[in-house]
Amino acid sequence: MSLRFSQTFFALMVLSFFSAFVLPQRLTDLGRTQFATLLIPISRPTYIIASAIRAHFVHEPSEDTRPAQAIEQENLMLKQQNLTMAAEIDRLAQRAGERARLGGIESLCGRFEVAGTDSDNHEGLTITGSGLSAVHVDQPVLSSANVVDLIGRIDRVGSLAAHVTLVTDAGFTVTGHFFSVSAGGAAENTNLMAIVRGQGNGNMVISTLPFEIVKRNVRVGDWIVLADDRWPQLHGVRIGRVASIRRLPSQSLFAEIGLAPETSLIHLSDVWVMTRQQ
Could you tell me the pTM of the whole model? Predict the structure, then answer.
């Protein structure tokens, strides 16, 4: 039996050699096809068994059988996430540009801790620190974050503390112009000056500009930045972001532009006071 098997194996090897290197390909292809046909009774059950095993242990991605509405909703969510990421990239680029443009301001300022907030209808902070001797009335007060914002001014100074009136306090006024950031870059509209007035409840308002001019030049999300002769060193510092635009209820030819600071000003832990001049 062993001799017969060896002879058969040797014959198959010789046949393989001739098929691969001697016989024309068209003949070997034909022979391969005929041989494969002879093996169908064995190969077909083996293929079926192997396919069943693979289907049991290897899960192919199935066709999405969810309703079209669910798929459309998921696509809309993904688009919204892409838009949010693009807006965040624009915001970070804006911050980087502002930081470079206004990066020397901190050298003119002293840092002070917030010791308390106003408990009446006014919006203000009480600050304290070792450098109070350099603090005076009407000095501007800025946020100490990575991006500098105007948050108010000093209105009272004592031996142990000073008081800050916030830009959101009713009656606080400051002048500025608009600053916008879009896919095309950043742009300052220095020709459209505005008077920003504190409105209370953490908000500000602009109500002195014609509605049609605002409609053509201002968009929700734009910034109003400082352009006030009292503090020329701070021109370009942010005041607040445009949160809403509508017609002024009492005078429809004018716009009412609602503004909001980037963060809640009454929850700051420390601030900068510009105690030195350039």
Answer: 0.62
